[in-house]
Design a protein that fits this description.
globular, 9-stranded mixed sheet, about 20% helix, about 35% strand, alpha+beta
């Protein structure tokens, strides 16, 4: 588990940042594309996310079921990978699997919070050990810092971009098509193609921006 103390960012603001797909394009430089697919309940949906991996690794993508829950002054968001018949694996991406990923945002005094992040992801592909080590040591902490910085800038950005539009808070604003849980199934990693990337040398890794 990774955690970061977010001074000057209220819990509800960080909660908005993690939900707002339009804003994500502003701070997540490794995101290629993200969009919502459909709504299951007032606090659960299905979405798509693709991630730019450092060259020469292949880019990854996910289809996940996400649910969220306000807990008084605290908030929780969790997701796990699912199979959707209209969004099968694509040839230009390796379909990765989120076994379970979660954010817990706890209020920490007046106008501050602590963000906890826990993830179990199978990136698929037989990745070299140095890639796994680098991800565990650097990617999550850098991602947390990005989210914190995004939280500091979000109120000003949101004031200029549909400030009243928050379908994750006001479900009546949600215009996603409704879908049934019966349309989905859990995405098991062993049913996906395994790409062998073990032979990739570390010195050839692109270091332009791979913080996740």
């Amino acid at each position: 588990m990774t955690r970061i103390s977010c001074k000057d960012v209220p819990a509800e603001t960080l909660y908005d940042v993690l939900h707002d797909t339009r804003y994500r394009k502003k701070w997540d430089s490794n995101m290629i594309e993200t969009y919502d697919i459909g709504r299951l309940t007032v606090n659960a949906d299905v979405g798509y996310y693709s991630w730019k991996c450092p060259s020469p690794l292949k880019n990854r993508d996910f289809v996940t079921l996400r649910s969220w829950l306000p807990l008084g002054n605290d908030y929780m968001i969790i997701n796990y990978s699912v199979k959707h018949p209209k969004y099968p694996p694509r040839k230009d991406f390796v379909r990765a699997v989120s076994l379970q990923t979660g954010y817990l945002i706890k209020a920490n005094g007046d106008g501050a919070c602590i963000l906890y992040y826990l993830t179990q992801v199978d990136p698929r592909g037989s990745l070299p050990k140095w890639v796994v080590n680098r991800v565990s040591q650097f990617v999550a902490p850098k991602a947390m810092k990005k989210i914190y910085k995004a939280g500091l800038k979000y109120p000003e950005w949101k004031r200029r971009h549909d400030p009243e539009y928050k379908p994750w808070v006001y479900p009546e604003q949600n215009t996603l098509p409704s879908m049934s849980l019966a349309e989905l199934s859990v995405q098991h990693a062993d049913s996906l193609e395994n790409i062998d990337e073990t032979g990739l040398p570390e010195e050839h890794l692109s270091t332009s921006d791979h913080e996740a």
